[in-house]
Amino acid sequence: MRIRNQRLLGVSGLVLALGFSALGAEALAQHQLTGRVVDERGNGLPGARVSVPELGLTTSTDRRGEFIFLSLPAGEAQLEVNYLGLPPGVRGVNISASETNTITFTLAQAGDGVERIVITGQILDSAARALNQQRTNSATTNIVSADSIGRFPDANIAEALQRVPGFAVARDQGEGRFINLRGAPGDFTGISVDGVAVGSPDPGTRAVDLDTIPADIVAALEVSKTLLPNQDADSIAGSVNLVTRSPFDRPGLRISGQGGLSYNEFGDGNDRRASGTISNTFGDGRFGALLSASYSRTDRQVDNIESNWIIEDVGGQDVFLVDEQEFKDYDTVRERTALTGSLEFRPDDANRFFLTGSYSRFRDNEFRNTLLVIYDDGDLQPGATNGNATWNDARIEKELRHRIVQNEIATIQIGGEHLIGGGELDYSLSYSRSEQFNPRRAQFLFRSSIRPDLSYDFSNADSPALSLFTTNEHLDLSGYGFRENVFRGQTTEQDEIAARINYAFSGSLFANPTEFRTGAAVRSREVTNDNEQYRDRRASANPGQPISAFLGTERSQNFNYFLGNKYDPSAVTAYWNANQAQSTQADVRRVPQSTTADYEAEERIYAAYGMATVEAGATRIVAGLRVEHTQFEGSAPFIDDADNISINRISRDYTNWFPNLTVRHEFSDNLIGRVALTRAISRPRYQDVVPRVEEGDRTSLPVEVDRGNPDLRETLSNNFDAGLEYYFTPLGLAAINVFYKDLENYEFELVRDGTYEGLPARISTAENAPDGYIRGVELTYQQQFVNLPGLLANTGVFANYTYTDAEITLASPISGSRTRVLPGQSDTTLNLAVFYETERFSARLSWNDRSDYIDSVDGEDSRLDIFWEGRSQLDFSASYDVNDQLGVFFEAKNLTNTEGVRYAGDRSRVIEREAFGYTLFGGLRFNF
User: Fold this and answer.
1) Are 189 and 240 in contact (CB under 8 A)?
2) Which of 601-635 are b and which e, b meaning 16 or more Cβ less than 10 Å from the residue's Cβ?
3) Within 13 A of 163's CA, how many CA atoms are on the CB side?
């Protein structure tokens, strides 16, 4: 692959040099034609193929149904329009030499001599839009329209993407949060809103928390699995662009919305969701404005048990032991608020100006009642075996945590598009901000003086037999005394300013019509992270009341374990409010923890590219070259043995070249093949590369140390993709895609035993694995069974399956091996949905499945690598349109009651078991 990409660099550069040098001799006449392809209702048809056969010219419509031919000769031209699901159309147009030519092309449901093809309902309409765009694109893409998203019970963008081939979702309390595309880590997928790159609110990753953004504010999800030179290169797995609505999607006054309520099985909680959009076009359709809003609230209870596994030498043999358990009973309220807006001005058919903005806020407010059992504060008794042990003098603690975490992602963009100088010019200036902070993060802990002898038996890994819940020492309130309160807070901010400019023009290369495109971009991102920790164990923090004064009447039942009564949140909150001022003073501030976790970083990226798209009959060839120069500066405080604070700094820059060759060939109107050779990058995580040294509690040995690595390099990937797609008539697809990614300097985290400031320590740091790969295959099939008799003709299926295999090769062996599985990579992901749809009614039953995947690598012993167990989920959704303006819908989620399970190396060693139940949701939709 590396040799192939070196050759590709030369080929790409040669094609561009020949193309740009040949323009003067072979340029076409500079007469432009713009147009829009619409259906009978005036709605734009995206992905329609528009061609001028006698000139060998082909283009396709954008998401608004609009298209441009940059260069046509004056005179009569014959346009052909082809759109899956509708009969093709042919129309003559007179190209004037004196002005920009404009045409509106309407595709009707039936044509002369053509059997009527009917697309009924939103499922098939959204499928038609997606398939047409996918078919005409040069690169390998998937499109998900807003209508398609709305037919699944998916509340956020991560869950909407899980239906797309190649995607798997990492969940938190049952909700999708991060995505894995084609077996790659979430950091390998770039996320943008209307083309504006957004950063992660989470300080520990570049992967964007997609549960921050609700699914009902977007018009479409555009997934690029192979990149073109005009796209940012920091997307090894691919990129996802969240397209918000435009007032020109459906011109005129439009008002739409939806809302509903739900029932959650656990805790008898509920969901409330509402969203709405209003848009209009004015001034003979030259000016447009749009505003959309979304709000949702979910009240839910979650059961959770976590067990920490270690390996100890017992009688000369390694034995797997549990040294600590936490029984967590969550009461959570999750809120999402989002706004999008758009202003567009089109003074004429050759010019467009726009201002767009988006804002999303996710607020997770949770009270967590926790019963802690700390076995290794006592003594291990002889006879321990794997999963069975007895400990004398174990410790019991009872805690309430209140955590509010708030993520915010905002974008604003201003720009323009112009037909000028015989070409197309577009430019934009944008600003994006991602932030995570804690309005409250507090803990209230009582410790029992009772030191019981406890045993456990993990013969049943999901429901181990625990002696504590027979002897019930944890229910004896007389033994509990106040231990501490803790206040913590962390704020992470990422601000990016970006400017982009692109210019495209038509010419000819080797007697073939060719579009040349060039452009440049500048991105400047500033990142800050500030952490504060306070722990107050002083007598002044003691409330002077027994634990019973802070307990309520609600029982805490975690699976089949009775934990006692829950804390009364109002009583503990009153304590926190009264004590926070004195418990966040300098003398209880945890140093160095409140200092060494802080860091600042600045990353500037300067990019330029050139590309040529050659239409050689049935073959389209895209050859291009992109270059990105990165400047990085980072700093972090450091505290030495004498508690002196200094600032460690890093500064470096590097340049990367990204050649690109993409070939698309039409074997027939319905059979499309693609091959792509590309190169991409994933820059190091900020907290991993800044010169940071963060230490834990020195009184608890070994000391936990998390260290940055200023020598960490960027990950590069040479990519090969090939695919074959067959489009059924009237509407269907069977496709196979294979991919291979050759990784250089893959970033992974390694934990080693060592010393820190003379103390035994477990030191965690990010390092580069010299080599690695991701390879796999995607299979996709979808079809409406129109040839079946009777009602069966209204049925259909959506199915996709992805197999991936991934591995990294380390610089030095761990547990005797230099090869490791790639974190986040499931061997298989599967989606299967069957649907029934008429003009008014639609129903869909959906099955989603992903196999086991590794969550984190243990740097000392691979037997303690942490895995997430594979998970399957069954969902159902149905809707009925009462008329063209009003509809009702129903959704059922996680009907299988599937839990989330993590384990250490083997399924018998469960680390975490979490249950969140099913959800039933119903509501109304309107559209005027």
Assistant:
1) yes
2) bbbbbbbebbbbbbbbeeebbbbbbbbbebebbbb
3) 29
Instruction: Work out whether strand 101-106 and strand 31-38 pair parallel, antiparallel, or are unpaired.
Output: parallel
Backbone angles phi, psi at 749, to 5 degrees: -100, 135
Give CA–CA dist 214/154, Å, rounded: 9
Tokens 């309902």 locate to 121
Q: At 574, list the tokens.
A: 């009153």
Question: Which two tokens mark 298?
Answer: 């979910």
Output the CA angle 687-690-696, nearest 5 degrees: 60
Of the candidates 153, 123, 115, the one whose C-alpha atom is nearest the C-alpha of residue 271 is: 153
* pLDDT > 80? residue 659: yes
Helix (H, G, I), strand (E, B) or coil at 202: coil
At 901 the three-state DSSP class reads strand
Hey, what are 451's tokens? 């030191």
Q: Which residue type occupies 49?
A: R
Contact 342, 245 (CB under 8 A): yes
Average pLDDT, integer, range 162-171:
91
Is residue 605 predicted with pLDDT exceeding 90?
yes
Give pLDDT tens digits for 378-424.
999 999 999 999 999 999 999 999 999 999 999 999 999 999 888 99
In this prediction, residue 114 has a pLDDT band, given cuts at 50, 70 and 90, of very low
> pLDDT tens-digit profile of 668-720?
989 999 999 999 999 999 999 999 988 877 777 888 888 999 999 999 999 99
Residue 500 contacts residue 606 (beta carbons within 8 Å): no
Report the alpha-carbon distance of residue 410 to residue 90 in Å, rounded: 44
Q: What is the mean pLDDT of the chain?
A: 90
Asked if 200 and 209 count as a contact pair (C-beta separation under 8 A), the reply is yes
Residue type present at position 195: G
Counting every residue written for the chain, the total comes to 928
**Nearest-5° angle of CA 272, CA 278, CA 282?**
175
Place of tokens 């103390």: 759
Q: Kindly report, residue by residue over 915-928, the tens digit of the pLDDT.
A: 988 989 999 999 88
Burial of 685 (0-12, 13-18, 19+ CB in 10 A): buried
Instruction: Return the number of other C-beta atoms located less than 10 Å from residue 70's C-beta.
Output: 22
| Residues 764-773: tens digit of each pLDDT | 899 999 999 9
Which tokens go with 12? 């790409």
pTM score over 0.85: yes
Spell out the residues 6+ positions from residue 587 whose beta carbon is closer than 8 angstroms to its own: none
Residues 6+ apart with CB under 8 A from 582: 536, 540, 541
Count of other CB atoms within 10 angstroms of residue 822: 24
Q: What is the separation of C-alpha 805 from the centre of its chain, rounded to a whole number of angstroms? A: 21
Pick the closest to residue 97 from 72, 69, 66 (CA basis). Answer: 72
Instruction: State CA 242 to chain mean position distance.
Output: 11
pLDDT tens per residue across span 489-502: 999 999 999 999 99
- The DSSP symbol for 589 reads B
| Percentage, residues of the chain above pLDDT 90 | 68
859-868 residue pLDDT tens: 778 889 999 9
Q: Is 857 exposed, middle or buried (0-12, 13-18, 19+ CB in 10 A)?
A: buried
Tens of pLDDT, residue by residue over 272-321, are 899 999 999 998 889 999 999 999 999 888 999 999 999 999 988 999 99
Residue 550 CA to residue 394 CA, distance in Å, equals: 24
Distance of CA 525 to the CA centre of its chain: 20
CA 379 – CA 377 distance, rounded (Å):
7
What tokens were used for 614?
């050659």
Q: 112: which residues sit within 8 A by CB, 6+ positions away?
A: none
Region label for 136, one of left (φ > 0), alpha (ψ between -120 and 50) or beta (otherwise) = alpha
Residue 659, CA atoms < 13 Å, CB-side half-sphere? 20
Q: What is the pLDDT of residue 75?
A: 85
